[in-house]
Amino acid sequence: MMKKQLCLILLFVVKQTIAQQPGNLVQYVKPIIGTQRMGHTYPGATVPFGMVQLSPDTDTIPYEMNGKYNPDVYKYCAGYQYDDKTIVGFSHTHFSGTGHSDLGDFLVMPSVGELKLNPGIASDPASGFRSGFSHNNEVAEAGYYKVKLDKYDITAELTATTRVGFHQYTFPQSDHAHIILDLMAGIYNYDDKNVWTFVRVENDTLVTGYRQTNGWGRTRTVYFAMSFSKPFYRYGNRNFSKRQVYRGFWGKFDQNNNFPEMAGKQLRAFFDFKTTAGEKIMVKFALSPVSTAGALQNLRTETPGWDFEKVKQDAQNAWQKELSRIAIRTGSIEDKQSFYTSMYHAFINPVTYQDVDGAYRGLDQNIHVANGFTNYTIFSLWDTYRALHPFFNLVQPARNADMIRSMLAHYDQSAQHMLPVWSHYANENWCMSGYHSVSVIADAIIKGNAPFDANKALDACIETSRHRNFDGLGYYIDMGYVPAEKNGSSVSTTLEYAYDDWCIAQAAKKLGRTDVYNEYIKRSENYKNVFDPSIGYMRPKLADGTFRKDFDLLSTHNQGFIEGNAWNFSLFVPHDPVTMINMMGGKKRFVQHLDSLFTMELPDKFFAETEDITRDGIIGNYVHGNEPSHHVAYLYNWTDQSWKTQERVRMILKKMYAARPDGLGGNDDCGQMSAWYIFTTLGFYPVAPGSDQYSLGSPAVDGAVLQLENGKTFEIEAVNQSTTNVFVQKVLLNGQPLNRTYITHQEIMSGGKLTFYMSGKRPK
Asked: Which residues of 104-153 form beta strands (DSSP E)?
């Protein structure tokens, strides 16, 4: 009897263990999602938060034509377009889903036959080294990419470590096999983008060098070390630069063929081999922000051998580990693909930006060492403060703390003594508005995730918020708003400053700095100064205190709002929705406004001149494809009709996300769109980062388990959840009724269970 009971107990434990194992989650990641139209993601090989994002580029169209901006280049923000029929090569750095671009460093392309050192044009692939390909011969997985280059009968396979891109090319028999290294190629490219490139042939299997560009990051330098698995027997380059005034006395040498130093603004190098049928040539390509010696150290440390399959498996194991932080329960394969692809996208950026020894290039262009933390870059903060960094605070708190340490290092190195606004690769590009680093920092402090000097971080926030010559900030400080004559996005900038100031106030309150709290809680009310009660909307205000007369509520062009219109942006008071609702006429009238947002029709003319807003990301006049609206559906929770939040978020999930190449309704913006999806699918969302509250919605899975870094688990269960049962009848937290429309961060981090009871009938 004892043995039988013991067996039953062991069987129960085994079953429980199996039930808790997430299984192979990598199989649900579909990197091809979001590669078409506005999604701008890329399908290549990377590891979580890796410096290398090795991916195919499908065209090389220029940033400008005839001295004017070429709007078609916008499609290539990530280098890859699903509808394209050719591939020009595989480059090592990409942004994931941004509305602008840079990067695309060090494009590698294998070929056979006649050597061509120009990519040619898509309509005539034979004119250059590009090759046609078919999606039928393309495999895209987390940490792995494979495609057949039809023109050359070459199979290309890619994988990566944090700092090394690993290529494996299977060649046909050829006496004229080539691997091209294109140092001219780049994303959002133009003739003068390359400041200088340099290549040094160390021996017949090792090449080093660097590239310096002037683009979105105006002083960006990336170093490399390139190692071949087989010696090349010949090499050379072509310099496509326009005539240089001074070229020195290098004419003593034949610099184009078998000469070990190559330098210029527009270089393409080649390395020649003789191959047998089915022969594999592998290339390891390491990056460094510091030096070629640093790149070589990264290469030898992370990829000491030539086992491609092991590196691939290690990459996919790394993804499995990160994806396993959340295990969802749903019967829909498409839901699993959408969810875990969203987690994949959320864990791409920011990226590690240091060598294996901790050295990195700082904002001051000097070399620093990250002591006690990992240094990160690519901070698209206007987007990611909203949900991505709050998501990290939930499931990646240690990593998020290191990201904040990286921001504080940026502040220490900044000539302006400011925290990052939009930064990448040791550069501040000043893109977008607000100073949203303070939101990320305050959110971590409020949620108890501040293993850094919190008071020093608050001081950096304060200093940033007092920088009078930044984007109308002096006017904001003196007048309480940014005047319309002084700033093209005066209204939205005022609203964003007010929210950021509220974040500073919350951090100050947590740290007991009452004087700072009093100053910034008052500044946080400045949103009231651009509200016109006569029309019930935010409106551009002139320096004389009057509202601008020429004004259109629906247009997104030249109306005082950045990438949005008054109908949407008037709702951007996430830190004080109660006062905002009262200002806009009370709950009943406010609900009517929210309803109209989702049901009215926004004609194309109202966003025709705004590149980041397209029909794909719009529902009525609600622009989900652009971030300022991401909290809006949850605002019903502050009215008497919270069931409409539940209805709206489920509708948005269905319309804006799908497991297809066009499955994102807008730019993913370094993970923000994906983080919105993850939170909303789980049933809650951080309306105001800097608060410890998450607003409740309608979970779109049957259940989920969050594996928290503190060792605890938090379970979500949605009883009777379905595509029609979207309304929440009641919510229990650890078996007790939760009679409010939010849950706190501490309640989640303490572990436990949140149970939603779902129905197809809306509550009365």
From this structure: 107-112, 131-132, 138-141, 144-149
CA distances from residue 455 to 461, 526, 531, 692 in whole angstroms, order as listed: 10, 25, 34, 19
Per-residue pLDDT band for 21 (boundaries 50, 70, 90) equals: low
Mean pLDDT taken over the chain:
94
Beta strands 55-57; 359-361: pairing state? unpaired
Question: Cα(32)–Cα(78) distance, rounded to whole angstroms?
Answer: 12
| Tokens at 606, concatenated | 């109202």
Helices and strands in the chain: count of H runs, count of E runs: 18, 39
SS3 category, 8: helix
Rounded to an integer, the average pLDDT of 667-692 is: 97
The first and second tokens of residue 24, run together, are 């192979």
d(CA 565, CA 552): 8
Distance of CA 541 to the CA centre of its chain: 34
580 pLDDT above the threshold of 90? yes
**Residue 635 per-residue DSSP state:** G
CA distance 256 to 381: 44
Assign 610 a pLDDT band (cuts: 50, 70, 90): confident
Q: Give me the pLDDT at residue 432, please.
A: 95
Using a pLDDT cut of 90, give the percent of the chain over it.
86
Q: For residue 37, is pLDDT > 80?
A: no
Collect all residues with Cβ–Cβ distance below 8 Å to 55 and sequence separation of at least 6: 42, 43, 44, 45, 46, 78, 79, 80, 90, 91, 94, 145, 158
Work out whether strand 713-719 and strand 752-759 pair parallel, antiparallel, or are unpaired: parallel
In b/e form, how buried is each residue of 262-289, taking b as 16+ CB within 10 angstroms? bebbbbbbbbebebeeebebbbbbbbbb
Residues of the chain above pLDDT 70, percent: 97
Give the pLDDT of residue 5. Answer: 46
Using only C-alpha atoms, the chain has a radius of gyration, in whole angstroms, of 27
Assigned token pair, 469: 């010559």
Q: What is the pLDDT of residues 379-407, one digit of tens each?
A: 999 999 999 999 999 999 999 999 999 99
Q: List the structure tokens of 665.
A: 């309704």
Please state the pTM of the whole predicted model. Answer: 0.96
Pairing assessment for the beta strands 138-141 and 86-87 based on DSSP bridges: unpaired
Euclidean distance between CA atoms 703 and 705, whole angstroms: 7
Q: What is the mean pLDDT of residues 304-319?
A: 98
For 343-391, the three-class secondary structure string (H helix, E strand, C coil) is HHHHCCCCEECCCCCCEEECCCCCEEECCCCCCEECEEHHHHCCCHHHH
DSSP H or E segment with residue 279 = strand 279-288
Two structure tokens written together for 670: 């370094």
How many Cβ atoms from other residues are within 10 Å of residue 40's Cβ?
Answer: 28
Q: Do 680 and 652 touch, CB atoms closer than 8 A?
A: yes
- What's the token pair of residue 294? 């640093």
Nearest C-alpha neighbor of 87 from the set 35, 132, 40, 148:
132
- 469-496 confidence digits (pLDDT tens): 999 999 999 999 999 999 999 999 999 9
| Alpha-carbon span 494 to 490, nearest angstrom | 6
Joined together, the tokens standing for residue 75 give 């499609």
Give the list of residues 6+ apart from residue 422 with CB closer than 8 angstroms, or none: 379, 380, 381, 382, 428, 429, 430, 431, 432
What average pLDDT does this structure show over 19-35? 85
The Cβ of residue 239 has, within 10 Å, a number of other Cβ atoms equal to 18
pLDDT in the model for residue 602:
82
Of the candidates 82, 72, 66, 74, which has an alpha carbon nearest to the alpha carbon of residue 101?
A: 74
CA-to-CA dists, residue 19 to 16, 163, 319, 590, angstroms = 5, 35, 20, 45
Which residues, at least 6 apart from 270, have a Cβ–Cβ distance to it below 8 Å? 115, 117, 178, 179, 180, 181, 235, 236, 237
Q: How do residues 712-725 score in pLDDT, each as one tens digit?
A: 999 999 999 999 99
Would you say residue 4 has pLDDT above 50? Answer: no
Q: What's the distance, Cα to Cα, between the start and end of the chain in Å? A: 55
